[in-house]
Write a structure and sequence with these properties.
It is a single chain. This protein has a domain at about 5-95: Orthogonal Bundle (Arc Repressor Mutant, subunit A), CATH 1.10.10.10. By secondary structure, it is α+β, with helices and mostly antiparallel strands. The protein is globular, with a radius of gyration of 16 Å. The strands form 2 sheets. It has a two-stranded antiparallel ribbon. The protein contains 6 helices and 4 strands, in the order H-H-H-H-E-E-H-H-E-E.
């Protein structure tokens, strides 16, 4: 990639949404991004490639499956600056590249449920206000907190 191509890239507001969803879902596919952003798939795919080239997103490719995306190192300062991620993430080591395919598939199932809840709460009186994942020694728990707007 030439210097002129690097200079032409400009971080946009829609890019922040993609990074936020990548952080919140942990592992996202283009289907998640398309559903949440309501953008055209081809345009979104081109933008994702640019974000990968600049280190904002990381891509996992498994044979016969959709690409899976996670936050890259370049995204961390932006997420912290915007108040989306905690400041501790700046010093944390990203371990997404060390994970096994089976674990990522499991996380994809969780991301599917999370995305469904986000979409269901967009035009509803019930809003998803917190999504927390608690890790115990062996078990993996998820807690969901919702708020009723009419209450």
């Amino acid at each position: 990639m030439t210097m002129a191509e690097l200079r032409r890239f400009q971080f946009a507001a829609g890019d922040l949404d993609l990074l936020r969803w990548s952080y919140e879902l942990r592992f996202a596919t283009i289907d998640h991004f398309t559903a949440l952003s309501k953008r055209h798939r081809p345009a979104l795919a081109r933008r994702i490639v640019r974000l990968i080239e600049r280190g904002y997103l990381t891509r996992f490719v498994f044979p016969g499956q959709k690409h899976i995306y996670a936050i890259g190192k370049a995204a961390i300062p932006i997420l912290v600056e915007q108040g989306i991620a905690p400041a501790e993430l700046l010093t944390a080591r990203l371990r997404t590249t060390e994970l096994k395919e089976l674990f990522i598939k499991h996380e994809q199932m969780i991301a599917d449920v999370h995305t469904t809840l986000l979409l269901a709460s967009t035009e509803s009186t019930v809003k998803l206000i917190a999504w927390c994942i608690f890790r115990a020694s062996i078990e993996h728990f998820s807690a969901i907190k919702v708020s009723h707007l009419d209450a």
